[in-house]
Design brief:
Number of strands: 9
Order of helices and strands: HEHEHHEHEHEEEEEHHHHHHHHH
Number of helices: 15
Largest sheet: 6 strands, parallel
Helix content: 40-55%
Strand content: 5-15%
């Protein structure tokens, strides 16, 4: 009881403080072909040399070509760091910082999915706070210093990182995940060009889309939401249910791709103000231990956690069920909530996402439980406060 009271009191204080924080939204270049306008935008910031943080897959796919051509035309020097791995590491960050300094860069372009974007954000934090180890910046409002100009080009429709205050990196030696949350990590500019997502493989389309749904749902059902975040979550949820399976089965549908990018952006805005919950705490821990892709983990974990919340989440889940047309007005609240959870399971199944996670080692669970709780409590304003026995049970449920 006392632990729950402490968590709720902490969350109320954070929510009160949040209303006074310097929130901003990135300047958007939106729509098909908008990438071609980025180089001119960089030039307008009087930047002569810029770091591009990406990964080998993006570089090999040729997606950078229009940007590099534009930078050359504008006379802007660029350096590319393309060694970012899924679940980016402390080493990735330090290598990106080194590349930034050795090329006398004055800004950063993050180009790719959530991993390059997170790497770029944390690199920016290390650039402006060179004496501060990343481990000391994890948690809420530990950066608190303006980053170099940050331009973000998402190539998936999932993380919403182009709109968020969050970034997560991994310690490969301890398997810890460091989640940094600071308004200074919100990008200055974002390019949401659906053409960049057309060639996305089906398994990345599905899991990144479910990542966006997890953001929207966790933000909506928690106690940290506001009138604005609830609306963003609702719109994102509706767009995802209308468009995710379409882009999974018909990847060249540009209109649906655009809708999914908007959904990811809105869900990102929602959770950056309202926070997430235990789905993310567990997923981050699994990523740290086993390098399980974040969206994939979220997709599998989400329905299990929603079921475990029980009555505490029925009302908001019922509202989402009504929103996406799963239920009749006469249905009971619990019935509507169950219908929404079942729809998530069914969507996963249709996109070949399993219901359990392979490879979880029994001997790791106690440590993972502690780390998930360290992340979730007392910060995340979840419908129901969970403790060690609860999280242990959830790990057993999701373990194949």
């Amino acid at each position: 009881m006392y632990k729950s009271l402490y968590c709720r009191s902490y969350q109320q204080i954070v929510k009160a403080i949040s209303s006074f924080l310097p929130w901003r939204e990135p300047v958007l270049l939106d729509g098909e072909g908008s990438l071609k306008d980025l180089a001119e935008l960089v030039r307008k910031q009087a930047i002569e040399s810029i770091l591009i943080v990406t990964d080998k897959g993006i570089a090999a796919a040729g997606l950078l070509a229009p940007l590099l051509e534009g930078l050359q035309e504008e006379g802007i020097h660029y350096a590319i760091y393309d060694k970012t791995v899924p679940n980016p590491t402390l080493e990735n960050v330090e290598e990106a910082v080194y590349t930034y300094h050795t090329n006398y860069c004055e800004g950063i372009i993050a180009f790719g999915g959530g991993s390059p974007i997170d790497c770029a954000k944390v690199a920016g934090a290390r650039i402006v706070k060179p004496g501060q180890p990343i481990a000391k910046m994890k948690g809420l409002l530990k950066v608190w210093k303006e980053l170099p100009p940050l331009f973000v080009v998402p190539t998936t429709a999932g993380t919403g990182a182009e709109a968020t205050l969050a970034a997560v990196v991994s310690n490969t030696y301890t398997h810890e995940k460091y989640a940094l949350m600071d308004t200074s990590l919100i990008p200055d500019y974002a390019v949401t060009d659906p053409a960049l997502t057309i060639a996305l493989p089906k398994h990345l389309t599905s899991t990144t889309g479910m990542d966006a749904l997890t953001h929207a749902v966790e933000a909506y059902i928690g106690k940290g939401n506001t009138k604005e975040t609830k609306q963003w979550s609702r719109e994102a949820t509706e767009l995802i249910f209308e468009n995710l399976y379409e882009v999974y089965s018909n990847g060249e549908n540009m209109a649906a791709r655009k809708n999914m990018q908007r959904a990811a952006y809105l869900a990102g805005k929602a959770f950056t103000r309202a926070y997430v919950g235990y789905v993310h705490a567990i997923a981050h821990t699994l990523g740290g231990f086993y390098s399980i892709p974040h969206g994939y983990a979220n997709a599998i974990i989400l329905p299990h956690v929603l079921e475990y919340y029980g009555k505490s989440a029925h009302k908001p889940l019922a509202e989402l069920a009504d929103l996406v047309g799963l239920t009749d007005a006469s249905d009971a609240t619990e019935q509507k909530a169950d219908a929404f959870i079942h729809a998530i399971k069914n969507l996963n199944k249709r996109m070949d996402i399993p219901s359990r996670i392979e490879g979880i080692k029994e001997g790791d669970i106690s440590t993972m439980v502690k780390r998930a709780l360290d992340e979730g409590n007392p910060l995340y304003p979840v419908p129901k406060i969970l403790f060690e026995d609860d999280i242990t049970h959830l790990f057993q449920v999701i373990k194949a």
